[in-house]
Write a structure and sequence with these properties.
alpha/beta, six-stranded mixed β-sheet
Length: 326
């Protein structure tokens, strides 16, 4: 589906936004692209869509170079909450669907039906499913430029799902979306991946959404791909910072920890704070021992999140760069 080798994009002025990236995304995969602002995520997406020419390296999307794609039988859909632009970029072959501001949503959907040659019966069926699910039935007669940000995002998602692309790229698609609609969109994306074998690339600062939808994480930092693997591996293995935290408040002094494989602990007054790898020792076993050895008035267990780990990774990187500068 997507094959990238030593891909680099350098802009005039010497700014390298994507630096020697290599990766492979198979058909039907759901991949979460993570990184801070300026990490290179959007540039990588634009290279995959064919909006940018690479400076160096190799890239093939759906079997051909994405810039100037000739094939129209395998469309690419893109939804972005970052910058809403007017017009269809169809001449590059990347088939990036966005709404025309001066048309109603209903006319926009009809236009997309014509562009992608969606059969009439298929169009009616899909529209009948998407409109109530996304809650856009009341805004079909609104012009695109009259929609709120949340309404527009739901409308753009409906537009892309209408022609069911082989590759779907969503860049911050949940901006302005309510909780109920988020769940609907998550379910629709899972269905596309499972039933139609659609390849999905999703980028959002809400890492929890990525974990719910995607099977693999790609982490970018300063243009480089610094992690490519599962979310579980990202939490526990790769960076060795995915420790579970347990905090127990006792009536008296905390008990001795004996030989439990604790990474580190802190005792402050009657409060014991532990950090441990829950794949080595279970929270149940550890808390059971502590509660059997002393009277606890409060206990709190916090498992690491991917968002926490990413913050730690960037912190480590900042410290490293500060050390190099000094």
């Amino acid at each position: 589906m997507i094959v990238i080798q030593n891909l680099t994009k350098t802009f005039p002025g010497g700014i390298t936004a994507v630096n020697d990236v290599s990766l492979h995304i198979a058909k039907g995969e759901t991949v979460g692209l993570i990184g801070a602002n300026g990490a290179g995520k959007t540039t990588l997406i634009k290279l995959i869509c064919g909006l940018y020419l690479p400076s160096e390296g190799y890239i093939r999307v759906l079997g051909e170079p994405p810039f100037g794609r000739k094939s129209k039988s395998h469309p690419i859909g893109m939804v972005t909450g970052q910058i809403i632009t007017d017009g269809y970029n169809y001449h590059f072959g990347h088939s990036s669907a966005v709404l025309q501001d001066d048309l109603s949503l209903e006319l926009n959907l009809r236009l997309i039906k014509s562009i992608y040659r969606v059969p009439k019966e298929v169009y009616k069926r899909r529209l009948g499913e998407l409109v109530p699910k996304l809650g856009i039935d009341q805004i079909l007669h609104y012009r695109a430029d009259q929609l709120s940000l949340g309404q527009r995002m739901k409308a753009e998602i409906a537009a892309v799902l209408l022609f069911q692309p082989d590759l779907l790229i969503l860049d911050e698609p949940f901006i302005g979306i309510d909780v109920e609609a988020r769940e609907t969109i998550r379910n629709l994306l899972r269905e596309m991946a499972a039933q139609r074998n659609t390849t999905i690339i999703l980028t959002t600062h809400n890492v929890g959404e990525l974990e719910r939808i995607c099977g693999r994480a790609l982490l970018m930092d300063k243009g480089k791909l610094v992690y490519n693997g599962s979310f579980d591996h990202l939490k526990m293995k790769k960076f060795h910072i995915g420790l579970t935290k347990m905090q127990v408040v006792f009536e008296g002094m905390p008990p001795d920890l004996q030989d439990f494989p604790i990474e580190r602990y802190v005792i402050e007054s009657n409060t014991l704070t532990l950090y441990y790898d829950s794949s080595i020792i279970s929270s149940k076993a550890l808390s059971g021992y502590l509660l059997s050895q002393g009277k606890a008035t409060d206990i709190l267990i916090q498992k690491p999140t991917v968002a926490d780990i990413i913050k730690e990774i960037y912190k480590e990187d900042e410290h490293k760069n500060d050390g190099e500068n000094h």
